[in-house]
Amino acid sequence: MNFWWLIRVAAILIAFMGISRADDAGDFATACRELAASGEGLTIGGGDGWLYLRAELAHLGKGEFWGDSAQNVSTASQADRRDPLPAITKYSQALTQEGIDLLFVPVPPKAVIYPEPVTEISLPKFPSRLDVVHEEFYEILHSNEVRVLDLGPVYAAERSATNNLYCRTDTHWSGSGCVIAAREIAARIKVMDWYESVPKQEFEAEWRTITIDGDLRGDTAKGKETIAVRFIGRRSGSELHPLEVDPLSAVLLMADSHGLVFHAGREMHGVGAGLADQLAYELGFSVALIGVRGSGASPARITLFRKSRKDPELLATKKVVVWCLTAREFTETDGWMEVPVKR
Q1: Which of 202, 280, 308, 335 is most buried (CB neighbours < 10 A)?
Q2: pLDDT tier, 264 (very low <50, low <70, confident <90, very high otherwise)
């Protein structure tokens, strides 16, 4: 009797949590949509100094973005480039034909992990998710044999840490967010059958505090932001020298500006502490890098295609392509072209 009572109570609780989760996600999407439609400019100001990209909030308010729905929510001008699903799945298949695995790594929107500054919603104590549409899309990709690293649950679990996972005044992840992403990516590469055969090197890591001029500041905030960043390199005397990327590496990181921040210098806030550097430290060898400052949806793949056309041997050493881009590009992009891997 007690056993069946417990089953009934458990079923009620599961159903309640599912309803609560759906309600939270729906309210969150509505809040993002309304905020994106308010005011002008690229930036939306939140509480406690947090700044958000208007286009990212607009994406979060659009709901389902693949299949027939893509025609109504994508910002792409050409109808045949609005749906990300065929572009991603066909690219994965094309890499597989070359003997290369794809690891698709969308970067969760900042507001999904830190919703409080822009909405009245706070993440509950039990595991929940505000971007359920992303979760559904990743499950569809999995069903199409695309390897997806969903950082959403990982970041949600880590968000109470001392260091923020995103810059408050910049569109990118923080030093801590970058390190966690690298660890998760590396964990999936280390179980691949070729990994142990790659010669390893030892690199050094050094956490430093830096001050950045966030790309969302504009006229909406005063002062610069101080964050902790982990620099990677080889030490010579007292100096830590940044690593060089390795074009012949078995691992190719193909990314939007999330592959350049803390790596490319100048407005990218540093050299030697980006995702390519963190991956090298976690894997024990340097990686190849194709990073673009614009869209990671099509331009990054076009860049790889052009490079492989000039150098037919470029892909010969590759075992895995890590394709990293911000999740808002599922809708806020010039389009998802079907790009070949090589001629």
Answers
A1: 280
A2: confident
Q: Nearest CA to 249 among 278, 270, 280, 275?
A: 280
What's the DSSP call for residue 118? T
Asked whether residue 172 is assigned to any structural domain, the reply reads: yes
User: What pLDDT, on the 0 to 100 scale, is given for residue 242?
Assistant: 94
Range 197-223 burial, b when 16+ CB lie within 10 A, else e:
ebeeeebeeeeeebebebbbbeeebee
Instruction: Answer for the pair 339, 296: CB distance below 8 angstroms, yes or no.
Output: no
Please list, in sequence order, all residues whose beta carbon lies within 8 angstroms of the beta carbon of residue 311, skipping any fewer than 6 positions away.
none
Q: Is residue 189 part of a domain?
A: yes
Amino acid at 70: A
Cα–Cα distance, 212 to 200 (Å, whole number): 33
What distance lies between CA 223 and its chain's CA centroid? 27
What tokens appear for 19 in the block?
């309803």
What is the per-residue pLDDT across 277-323, written as a single tens digit (0 to 9) for each?
Answer: 999 999 999 999 999 988 999 999 999 999 999 998 889 999 999 99
Provide the residue type at 277 as one letter. D
In-domain check, residue 335: no
Global pTM? 0.91
Domain presence at residue 342: no
Range of the domain at 185: 2-330
Which are the contacts of 126, defined by CB distance < 8 A and separation ≥ 6? 17
